[in-house]
């Protein structure tokens, strides 16, 4: 591979190529790096010595001989820098530290109430990151990036979070500004469902695919879409807001404008509301028994438990939910022709009954439906997605 430009630029580009090549392989000898990149042995040796001196690379052992001296193997030093990830999609916030291999080296969580001010919550999160770094013996200066998954659409131009999910009163929050008061590291912000899609694509069910969507079904409904290996965000960062998908002309009515047609008729909140109406009416069944007749005690997990025990009312509610989400997936699939749909969020509690009904709806309309699977990372999906966002930034900016 021939690279042209100023000597400094050439060195930087060659160094990036060397790092990427070693990172992808796991470990390589100097000779193998030179062979794969088509660079001269002296050039590769000089750059590698510089990367070893900086601590970016490390020697990891001795390779097999092909006739001469056994080669020294090189690998990325995973502890050269660290990244932090924060998943703000739920009221139990996940916070984690990772190394440059994307390995989880420490995590914690904190909870907040829906009425808590966003700025106060984020200051608490910043404190938790500092505590985690201290507990793991990591100096804050070694944090190379902090990635946040936020429950809304982030506008980089204004720094504001908009279209915030219904369980958060954080409209107009400026996360980057708040974190910049605590850390020197760059702060990277993405929508929580997009981040979860990256997590599944990188470390979950989506490994090996090029075209997939992650669909989160809970209080809100949204999709993160990967096309040709790249996250689709759209011109306003709002791609995948399928909660606003219109599945009938009633979607034109004012009642559906705040949260969207699909989200209003198929969220877990709607399922719970209908289940509470069943209990309040005193209809015999497991929902009445499990709640002991107190409608306010019904939550989504209780509905799922009743459905698992073959309660007809609970199963009907989940089947209707699966039908609506399945229709949305069908519309998405007809436009994008995806390999894989990964389902995550609160709906995971509904188990195989929901997934079966979902697949039935999609296959009724589409002759060759995509694979539809539950998330394999579950509650860690968003955190691994934040690692993916942070590491992409770090490797693009090592120099």
Question: What are the SSEs and their pairings?
Answer:
Blueprint: H1 7-25, E1 28-29, H2 30-37, H3 41-54, E2 57-62, E3 72-76, E4 82-87, E5 92-99, E6 104-111, H4 118-135, E7 143-150, E8 153-155, E9 160-162, H5 175-180, E10 187-191, H6 192-203, E11 212-217, E12 221-227, E13 230-232, H7 261-266, H8 268-280, H9 286-290, H10 300-308, H11 312-336, E14 340-344, H12 351-365, E15 371-374, H13 381-396
Parallel strand pairs: 4-7, 7-10, 11-14, 14-15
Antiparallel strand pairs: 1-3, 2-3, 4-5, 5-6, 8-9, 11-12, 12-13
Helix pairs in contact: 1-3, 2-3, 6-13, 8-11, 10-11, 11-12
Description:
The chain is α/β, with parallel strands linked by helices and 399 residues long. The chain is 42% helix and 20% strand. The chain is built from 13 helices and 15 strands. The strands form 4 sheets. It has a 5-stranded mixed beta sheet with strand order 6-5-4-7-10, sandwiched between helices. Strands 13-12-11-14-15 form a 5-stranded mixed beta sheet, with helices on both faces. A 3-stranded antiparallel beta sheet has the order 1-3-2. A hairpin with a 4-residue loop joins strand 8 and strand 9 (160-162). The relative contact order is 0.11. The model has no long low-confidence stretch (mean pLDDT 90).
Number of strands: 15
Radius of gyration: 24 Å
Give the uncertain stretches in residue-range form. Answer: none
Outline: elongated
Main β-sheet description: 5 strands, mixed
Mean pLDDT: 90
Strand content: 15-25%
Succession of helices and strands:
HEHHEEEEEHEEEHEHEEEHHHHHEHEH
Trace the largest sheet across and list its strands. 6-5-4-7-10
Which structural class should the secondary elements be placed in? alpha/beta
- Fraction of helical residues: 40-55%
Termini separation: 20 Å
Put simply, the count of helices is 13
């Amino acid at each position: 591979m021939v690279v042209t430009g100023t000597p400094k630029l050439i060195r930087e580009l060659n160094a990036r190529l060397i790092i990427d090549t070693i990172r992808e392989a796991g470990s390589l000898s100097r000779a193998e790096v030179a062979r794969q990149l088509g660079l001269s042995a002296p050039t590769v040796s000089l750059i590698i010595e510089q990367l070893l001196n900086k601590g970016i690379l490390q020697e990891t052992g001795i390779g097999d001989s092909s006739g001469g001296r056994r080669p020294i193997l090189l690998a990325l030093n995973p502890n050269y820098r660290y990244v932090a990830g924060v998943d703000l999609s739920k009221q139990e916030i996940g916070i984690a530290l990772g190394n440059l291999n994307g390995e989880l080296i420490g995590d914690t969580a904190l909870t907040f109430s829906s009425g808590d001010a966003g700025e106060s919550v984020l200051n608490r999160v910043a404190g938790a990151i500092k505590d985690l770094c201290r507990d793991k013996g990591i100096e804050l200066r070694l944090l190379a990036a902090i990635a946040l998954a936020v429950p809304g659409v982030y506008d980089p131009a204004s720094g504001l979070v908009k279209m915030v999910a219904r369980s958060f009163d954080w409209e107009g929050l400026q996360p980057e500004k708040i974190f910049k008061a605590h850390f020197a590291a760059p702060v990277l912000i993405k929508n929580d469902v997009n981040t979860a899609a990256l997590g599944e694509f990188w470390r979950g069910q989506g490994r090996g695919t090029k075209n997939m969507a992650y669909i989160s079904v809970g209080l809100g409904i949204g999709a993160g879409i990967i096309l040709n290996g790249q996250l689709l965000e759209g011109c306003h960062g709002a791609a995948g807001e399928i909660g606003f998908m219109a599945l009938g002309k009633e979607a034109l009515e004012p009642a559906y404008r705040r949260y969207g047609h699909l989200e209003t008729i198929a969220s877990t909140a709607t399922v719970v509301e209908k289940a509470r109406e069943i209990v309040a009416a005193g209809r015999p069944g497991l929902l009445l028994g499990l709640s002991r007749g107190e409608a306010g005690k019904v939550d989504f997990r209780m509905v799922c438990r009743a459905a698992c025990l073959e309660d007809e009312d609970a199963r009907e509610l989940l089947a209707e939910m699966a039908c609506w989400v399945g229709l949305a997936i069908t519309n998405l699939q007809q436009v994008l022709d995806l390999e894989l749909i990964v389902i995550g969020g609160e709906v995971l509690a509904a188990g195989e009954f929901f997934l079966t009904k979902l697949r039935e709806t999609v296959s009724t309309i589409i002759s060759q439906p995509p694979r539809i699977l539950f998330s394999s990372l579950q509650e860690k999906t968003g955190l691994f997605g934040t690692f993916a966002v942070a590491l992409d930034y770090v490797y693009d900016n090592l120099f």
